[in-house]
Amino acid sequence: MTTPITIAYGDGIGPEIMEATLRILTAAGARIAPEVIEIGEKVYARGETAGIDAASWESLRRTKVFLKAPITTPQGGGFKSLNVTVRKTLGLYANVRPCVSYHPYVATKHEKVDLVIVRENEEDLYAGIEHRQSDEVYQCLKLVSRPGCEKIVRYAFEYARANGRKRVTCMTKDNIMKLTDGLFHRVFDEVKAEYPDIETNHMIIDIGAARLATRPEDFDVVVTLNLYGDIISDIAAEVTGSVGLGGSSNIGDQCAMFEAVHGSAPDIAGRGVANPSGLLLAAVMMLVHIGQGDVAEKVHNAWLATLEEGVHTGDIYHEKVSELQVGTSAFADAVIERLGRRPSRFTPVNYAGGPPIAVSGRITPTHPARKELVGVDVFLHWRGAAAALGAQLTRLNGDGLTLSMISNRGVKVWPNGLPETFCTDHWRCRFVATDSAHPLQLSQVLSLLMRVGNAHLDFVKTEHLYTFDGVSGFSLGQGQ
Ligand code: NAD
Q: What is the band of 354 on the pLDDT scale with cuts at 50, 70, 90?
């Protein structure tokens, strides 16, 4: 059966590498029916601020599979990132980036790297919810959800199983962010119990990133939150020395997008010298995803054979190891000639696995907890000393709420703050229930805010303090 897919030729070297990739796929017998959409520079120029128009969305939503060549992101404000828009709109929650060393054909200090970063793609600081709240302070909200964590962690374990991987390493910063990163780590611990055949470990992201840079061969599959994943996938790609050869996939419950890791390389566009390998390896991931592991295996093994036989494009050509320098089209010809052959020096790949990975039906339902309001953090834009603010706010105590603490950038400054603590104009003022045995009503919070407003204090936001089934749902101030 033929699978319809949506493709985009993109900008810069995009058309050259897409043409080469499609020629290889066709020669390998890929059972695909490509449908072309236009994205990128030309679409931005027509005034579509996200670089993609309505007809393209229709194609993407129908085929649910997108093979995308790189595009040129316009300079200047007013334009939205096409990648971020597509990822978020289509719910592509998993970004999967294999990082492999191809020693001795690609220069690297680490000869035996073969790892995969599985990065959460929708949440965390990338929700893009930012506010300026005072003269001095800006904030970005870090949102992490339980189903979001479970989806990506399950995906990582399923990916490991489907690809014969042995270990999944989770990286978080839960020693500092105990609630958000703590949730990710906790969900990892819960889910790993269902995969006793896979080894697991957890690392704090800072040491994890350092180890990736110095001992990348120790890693197999790494699963992590969005921002950390963004950073470590570049570290891992860099240490293998093969950024230009990397493909990546963005997987959702319904749709998926496959692309090269590199950009549109305008400096070499139109010269027929670009290396099509990144997009080709992305296409290999796409074939596995649509259940054509047989074709994926044939293409990938022919590509490995081409590489080890020294047929190289200019970006990786080196006289010591290369036999022949070729352009984009001749490289594609060389891969096509080798279809059906397996590499002898590299380990051949095997994609004989089962159906595509699907985790959506297995996410644990969240049951509503007994949620009780026990206080409120009122954030003020204010200039002055902590003691003066404490004195002023204490006078607003009443109606079941009592000021318990003031912090500045998370550090407790009242009561008993230290003069050494640097303070900005942004104060978190924590009011808690005077009688802890009795949960608060929203009306008590509203009347407190009325008193704050009437005292001409500029409150810029509030955060409610809840317990969930008796467990605190908020962090303490540093020093509290
Ligand atoms: P780039 O990856 O396009 O190029 C960096 C360097 O690597 C250049 O010297 C280029 O010639 C070389 N290179 C990249 N791919 C190559 C290939 N396949 N074969 C041979 N050499 C290759 O990064 P850049 O120059 O920072 O960005 C160029 C444009 O691409 C920008 O507009 C950027 O926003 C965009 N971009 C798009 C994507 C995407 O669509 N997914 C990703 C990254 C960058």
A: low
Cis before 74? omega within 30: no
Domains (range + CATH), the chain = 1-91+245-346 (3.40.718.10), 109-240 (3.40.718.10), 371-472 (3.30.70.1570)
The answer to whether 411 touches 380, Cβ cutoff 8 Å, is no
Higher pLDDT among residues 361 and 459, named by residue:
459
CB 245 within 8 A of CB 102: yes
Q: In this structure, what are the phi and psi dihedrals at residue 244, rounded to the nearest 5 degrees?
A: -70, -10
Q: What's the mean pLDDT in 416-425?
A: 93
Please, are residues 232 and 208 in contact by the beta-carbon 8 Å criterion? yes
Q: Does the beta carbon of 275 lie inside 6 Å of ligand 1?
A: yes
Report how far ligand 1's centroid is from the alpha carbon of 283 (Å).
Answer: 18
Residue with CA nearest ligand 1 atom 34: 73
Give the single-character DSSP code of 143: B
Rounded distance between C-alpha atoms, residue 92 and residue 70, angstroms: 18
Mean pLDDT value across the chain: 94
For residues 71 and 80, the answer to whether their CB atoms sit within 8 Å is: no
Query: Residue 361: exposed, middle, or buried by beta-carbon count in 10 A (0-12, 13-18, 19+)?
Result: exposed
- 21-46 pLDDT, tens per residue? 999 999 999 999 999 999 999 999 98
Ligand 1, atom 42: closest residue by C-alpha: 263
Ligand 1 centre to CA of 245 (Å) is 12
Residue with tokens 């970005």: 140
